[in-house]
């Protein structure tokens, strides 16, 4: 198992729980933390019993309070661009990741925090969660995909208001505008684990191809998206899981998927 300084990786099959662990800096993302998150995602794939990942923050207060501002005073424009590139690469890796990733937003998710949550497949949040893109307060702009993904998730006008004002978005509002799928009063991680267990009962290849079709399709014209969908639809028909899934339905029993 990898040695991590800034994150905690826990295995609770079928879920892996990835926690940013810098509570004294409200889990702000420095380059080391971004690298460790990326390495942990690779490590998780060696554990075949894991069927989904939960991304959350350690401590009572924060999911991720954004990029680490303490590193910014001395950053040159070139270094800033490279930093944004590293953060963006992590978000792309999350979107391309073969397993579902759920953001369990337990507190402040500002700047890079909202941006990492947006790169997850969907978001559950505690009622005390706070979202936002406060970069304009610092005289900078979002750099880990916020200007691109927020509008795709909540629509252009909502995204514009959030990004141009930099204001805090309380959990209830985030839920209302469709940024958050579910507000969880009780144990947020348990709720996310329940969803991963539900997904773990489905065909693993089907889940992987379905995520891929949705993610890739979002960036394509409808004809190309539909073409991608039908080729993946064909591909999944080559699997043993398809034979088992269809047979189990017709025999009125639960399928036993093998991920083959
Ligand atoms: N980077 C570095 N340190 C941070 C941080 C961040 N993003 N957010 C909080 N911290 C640190 C604080 O400096 C403070 O450290 P000290 O105890 O050493 O002083 C500690 O975490 C606790 O924070 P506060 O005392 O500020 O706590 P609070 O309860 O008064 O406020 C908060 C909480 C509203 C989240 C406030 O900390 C805050 O506004 N944080 C900054 C949020 C932000 O602007 N994020 C965007 C960053 S830029 C970005 O993310 C760009 C991008 O797109 C990649």
Describe the 3D structure.
The protein has 260 residues and is α/β, with parallel strands linked by helices. It folds into two domains: 7-199, 2-enoyl-CoA Hydratase, Chain A, domain 1, CATH 3.90.226.10; 201-250, Lyase 2-enoyl-coa Hydratase, Chain  A, domain 2. 47% of the residues lie in helices and 15% in strands. The protein has ten helices and ten strands. Strands 1-2-3-5-7-10 form a six-stranded mixed sheet. Strand 2 (15-20), helix 1 and strand 3 (52-57) form a beta-alpha-beta unit. The two termini are 26 Å apart. The model has no long low-confidence stretch (mean pLDDT 97). It binds acetoacetyl-coenzyme A. Acetoacetyl-coenzyme A (CAA) binds next to strand 6 and helix 3.
What keyword list fits this structure?
2 domains, 47% helix, binds acetoacetyl-coenzyme A, 6-stranded mixed sheet, 4-stranded mixed sheet, alpha/beta, globular, 2-enoyl-CoA Hydratase, Chain A, domain 1, Lyase 2-enoyl-coa Hydratase, Chain  A, domain 2, 260 residues
- The backbone outline, from C-alpha atoms, is globular
Number of discrete helical segments: 10
What would you report as the Rg, rounded to the nearest angstrom?
19 Å
Strand order of the largest sheet: 1-2-3-5-7-10
Question: What is the H level of CATH, i.e. the homologous superfamily of the largest domain?
Answer: 2-enoyl-CoA Hydratase, Chain A, domain 1
Secondary-structure content class: alpha/beta
Short description:
This protein has helices spanning 31-44, 77-96, 112-119, 146-154, 156-165, 171-176, 188-200, 204-218, 222-236, 240-250, and strands at 7-12, 15-20, 52-57, 62-64, 101-105, 108-110, 122-125, 130-132, 169-170, 182-183.
